[in-house]
Every structure is written in structure tokens, then in C-alpha cells.
Design a protein that fits this description.
With about 325 residues, the protein is of the alpha/beta class. It is built from eleven helices and 13 strands. The protein has a single domain, classed as Aldolase class I (TIM Barrel). The protein binds flavin mononucleotide.
């Protein structure tokens, strides 16, 4: 079956990228509904009070709306991050907004938080059957100015809190205008302080759900350390390292680069963060994992858990099998 899925994955690469992503996901759903499930060896890991059956997860953006939770879980991953979701549904940027760079096993995307809105995602979280941990990445609507952004993040937090295992605050997408400004120290404080306060209030009704912050790989050492200092100051529970990079020369001009060329910069950011934050601080790595070697490099560089996105697009479910099978 994995071989068949690999052939289908390669064939899909001849179809425009965004359409092929949807076809692949609906194809996986059909296979899942026929009873297909991959059983892989367990490697139990506890992080932030959550039990993970293994350290490999699906990164945010692949299932933005929670439409594919159970079928992705059936592939054997240890966790899935949904979203990024915003309070209101939005179309995102104009198409084409997703480009393949096949020679370097990379993607450039300028999706712009296209999603069906937080209420849709909540309905999907309620329906899910899988018991694997599910994180939800939250963001702001395109029209919301940065001064009011905290309200969007809090709106999403309140709605998904009961149903999510962890929450990821996404301030690092390059495709929502000025979002990365939040990586600056005082702006970050203004955003995460009210979100943290609301998390603590929600804890009283629904228990403690950890908050992670997802950062970009385009900060220098001092910027990464400043962000880490703010994380500690406000008792943010974990870091996701990293989103896509804007350092590329793709003819589309803008957007974020992911895949193989991102491995170096995202791992460097991970190493800086790990050194600053110490051994115990929870860190999820994301960026450029295309093989088991890349996965092990992330673990050796200080990652507690590792996510894949572009590698999954290029290699299909076989990548999960390659990484997790001993
Ligand atoms: C098409 C596409 C959409 C993405 N959407 C999101 C998103 O909504 N939220 C987010 O935090 N990251 C998003 N990402 C970034 C991924 O979660 C991941 O961090 C990044 O692609 C690096 O990992 P990779 O090299 O394994 O792809 C997106 C990436 C791609 C390629």
C-alpha cells in the first residue's frame, strides 16, 4: 500500500500544487475510510503534560480546517497541528500562491491564512475519533490591525481551548502583512501577555493546555534570544522552531520557502533557542525534514518533537514510515 501511495504522490506532482494537495488529502481520506491504518513502533514521549506515542507530527497548514484529522492520524504520526485558524473565515491571497521548486525539494507559499474560520474547526475537533494529541495554531484575520490582533488570538483561544491539546500562537507567517512585527520584544509582550492571562482563566474550567509560540527562521541570534527571554518572562510553555523563510529568490517575489533549503536556517534557530532556554524547555522543530537523517539532526539539535510538511508533500506517507520504523 505504501508503494502505491508513493506512486500516487509522484503522479500528483504533475498537477498544479494547490490542487494536488487537496486531491492527495481527499485521496488519503478515501483510503482511510476503507479501513487503511499504519501501525508503527511506539516511542512514548511526555511533553508539557501530554503523552505522545512518537515524536513525529504534521505541521500547521496542511490541515488548516480540521477536515482530515482522523485520516492523517491513521498514518501513524504522534500528533497533528491544525490551522492556522482565524476568527472569521477568509480566502487568503490570490492564486497562484503555492509553487514547487522540484530541483531543490522545496515549496514557496503565500497562502495568507486561507481557512474556514474557527467555528468550523471547532466542529471538526468535536467530531474527531483519534486520541492522538492535536494542537491548534491560531492567528489573526487579514483585516485586523496589529493593535487589535490580541482580540483575534483570544477569540480563537477561547473557542478551541476545550478541544485542543496544545495551542500554537503563530506570529511568524510571512504572508499576513506585518505579522512578523510581533517578533519584536515589546510588541510580543503586548500580544502574549493578554493571551497568557486568558489561558490561565480558561484553565479553571478546562484544565491546563500549554501555549507554544511559533517563530520564524529569519531572526539573528540576538532576536532569537530576546524572543526566548520574553517566553520565559511570561511563562509561555513551549517554542515551535520554525516557520518558513523569506530568504529566497523565487520569481513569485514573496512568500515563505519550506523544504530542503530550510533545514539549515531552521535548525540553526533551534540550536540558538535550545542553548538559551536550557534542556527542559519544550521545543517542537519544524523546517526541512525530508528524511530520517534530517529528523535525527533535529533531535540531536535539541528538538523534543519534530514536524513535517513539505517532506510529506514530496515523499507522501512513506516518509512517516521511513522515520518511525527502526
Ligand atoms: C502551503 C503551506 C501552508 C502553510 N501554512 C501554515 C499555517 O497556516 N500556519 C503555520 O504555522 N505554518 C504554516 N506553514 C508552515 C509549516 O507549518 C512549516 O512550519 C514549514 O513549512 C516548515 O516545515 P517544512 O520544511 O517541513 O515544510 C505552511 C507551509 C506550507 C508549505
Amino acid at each position: 500500500m505504501l508503494l502505491l501511495l508513493k506512486i500516487i504522490t509522484k503522479t500528483l506532482h504533475f498537477i498544479p500544487p494547490e490542487m494536488s494537495h487537496y486531491l492527495a488529502l481527499y485521496g488519503l481520506k478515501a483510503v482511510y475510510l476503507c479501513g487503511f491504518k499504519i501501525d508503527l513502533p511506539e516511542e512514548i514521549k511526555y511533553l508539557s503534560g501530554i503523552q505522545f506515542n512518537n515524536k513525529l507530527g504534521i505541521a500547521a497548514g496542511l490541515d488548516k480546517n480540521g477536515d482530515f484529522i482522523d485520516c492523517l492520524a491513521s498514518l501513524g504520526v504522534g500528533f497533528i497541528e491544525l490551522g492556522t485558524v482565524t476568527p472569521l473565515s477568509q480566502n487568503g491571497n490570490k492564486k497562484p500562491r503555492l509553487f514547487r521548486i522540484r530541483a531543490s525539494k522545496a515549496l514557496v507559499n503565500k497562502m495568507g491564512f486561507n481557512n474556514k474560520g474557527v467555528d468550523h474547526l471547532v466542529s471538526k475537533l468535536r467530531e474527531r475519533k483519534t486520541k492522538i494529541p492535536v494542537g491548534v495554531s491560531i492567528g489573526k484575520n487579514f483585516e485586523t490591525p496589529n493593535e487589535l490582533a490580541h482580540k483575534d488570538y483570544i477569540c480563537c483561544l477561547e473557542k478551541i481551548y476545550e478541544f485542543a491539546d496544545y495551542i500554537a500562537i503563530n506570529i511568524s507567517s510571512p504572508n499576513t502583512k506585518d505579522l512578523r512585527d510581533f517578533e519584536a520584544e515589546n510588541k510580543l509582550e503586548n500580544l502574549i501577555k493578554p493571551v497568557k492571562e486568558r489561558q490561565l482563566e480558561l484553565t479553571k474550567d478546562f484544565g491546563y493546555k500549554p501555549l507554544f509560540l511559533k517563530i520564524s527562521p529569519d531572526n539573528d541570534r540576538k532576536d532569537v534570544e530576546d524572543i526566548c527571554r520574553t517566553l520565559l518572562k511570561f511563562s509561555i510553555d513551549g517554542l515551535i522552531c520554525s516557520n518558513t523563510t523569506v530568504n529566497h529568490n523565487h520569481p513569485s517575489g514573496s512568500g515563505g520557502l519550506s523544504g530542503k533549503p530550510l533545514l539549515g536556517p531552521s535548525t540553526e534557530t533551534l540550536r540558538i533557542a535550545r542553548k538559551f532556554l536550557g534542556d527542559e524547555f519544550p521545543i517542537i522543530a519544524s523546517g526541512g525534514v525530508m528524511s530520517k537523517e534530517d529528523y535525527l539532526q533535529k533531535i540531536d539539535s535539541g528538538a523534543d518533537l519534530v514536524q513535517i510538511y513539505t517532506g510529506f508533500i514530496y515523499e507522501g506517507p512513506k516518509l512517516i514510515n521511513d522515520i518511525l520504523n527502526k
